[in-house]
Amino acid sequence: KISPWTGRFYSLLDPSYAKNNIPIIASVSEHQPTTWSSYYFDLQLLVFMFPGKCVSRTGPGRVGLYYCFSNLSDARIFIIMYGVTSMYFSAVMVRLMLVLAPVMCILSGIGVSQVLTTYMKNLDVSRLDKKSKKQQDSTYPIKNEVGPPPAHRRCCSPLWAPQPHVASGMILVMAFFLITYTFHSTWVTSEAYSSPSIVLSARGGDGSRIIFDDFREAYYWLRHNTPEDAKVMSWWDYGYQITAMANRTILVDNNTWNNTHISRVGQAMASTEERAYEIMRELDVSYVLVIFGGLTGYSSDGWISTSSCGWCVSGGSTTRGGHIKEHDYYTPTGEFRVDREGSPVLLNCLMYKMCYYRFGQVYTEAKRPPGYDRVRNAEIGNKDFELDVLEEAYTTEHWLVRIYKVKRPGQPRALQDIKLSTEFLIFARRGGRKYFYTFVWVE
């Protein structure tokens, strides 16, 4: 029995299907449309050798698809269909760039071969012309200006007369492009596609490499400082990592097919603290984990409209999340902003508060006000707030990962807000006895 098509397959035929009907599918970054920059970044020279026709003074260069259309055969018709359909599907989903890569190599190889063949032939013909001219000058006292051209020259049209200097130049240019493509492919493979996503790196102002190991730091803390039966709520992107490295139960992960379950997590993230607390108690959540890049400039965090938070809002707009209206999180001009001009609904939802808790007191850049988000390039609009249903449990060195503990029902507020920042141990001797006094500075 053949199972029915899922939303991902329908999205290939109708790119707007998932966004309008199943936002959870559209929230996957690999399901986003491919940008033009991604094509050039991944394929470089192949982008120009794939489609059309190259013409110069010395001759036509039939490149890629144009050559296959000009010389139709069963094999070339197959390549044409493969190339066109792969190009379409890769434009719909960026993950299908892998499907486009083989046919790109085939058609670009045909294009490079045709260009080199054309100019190499012209270069050979020009050498034969010089040799024939020398023989003619030494044998005949009078040149035959009217007679037919030699047989080796009749293969070329007079319009495309051999130009040795141009042919040599084109061959050198093509060799340069191929060498550049080799270096580009090696660089992309080593820098973009070989680095683990769990350990991040960047270049400092002096060129030194800076390592951001916040993910492993957070997962190590979860593994050693939380009960074994603790349940962690986070967006599904980090489910596998938490399960494997922290050995803790998570609500949703990369293999969760229950869209309703994912939408409940989205509703909790996009709701106010009071409504989110009801959902978290319903799901028996112990800890909440969020990814935040406002301090370091990590743009793949969970608080941009095209990433987790925006999809939390979209995914939460279901039947059980009737209080969530996606348009309420945007400004009247349709912008997704975190500064003072942002939507009040957005500035008071749980996701915002978990990301920006205590961030309003932090200076991130010189000559910038405290609470300046380096990803959104804006000063946050809601700085002075406290958490009512959560308490900060752990924040990593670069603030990339923030972990909050869900407060127990009925826990006294006075005890909830105590933060131990400094502890003093004083030794005293009275009447021959030793006394230890511990003083705690309470904020």
From TrEMBL:
GO terms for biological process: post-translational protein modification; protein N-linked glycosylation via asparagine. Residues 222-290 form the AglB-like core domain. Its EC number is 2.4.99.18. Residues 1-107 form the Oligosaccharyl transferase STT3 N-terminal domain. Residues 130-151 are annotated as: Disordered. Keywords: Endoplasmic reticulum, Glycoprotein, Glycosyltransferase, Magnesium, Manganese, Membrane, Metal-binding, Transferase, Transmembrane, Transmembrane helix. Its cofactor is Mn(2+); Mg(2+). Pfam families: AglB_core-like, STT3. InterPro entries: AglB-like_core (IPR054479), Oligo_trans_STT3 (IPR003674), STT3_N (IPR048307). Signal peptide: none annotated. This is Dolichyl-diphosphooligosaccharide--protein glycosyltransferase subunit STT3A. It comes from Takifugu bimaculatus. The lineage of its organism: Eukaryota, Metazoa, Chordata, Craniata, Vertebrata.
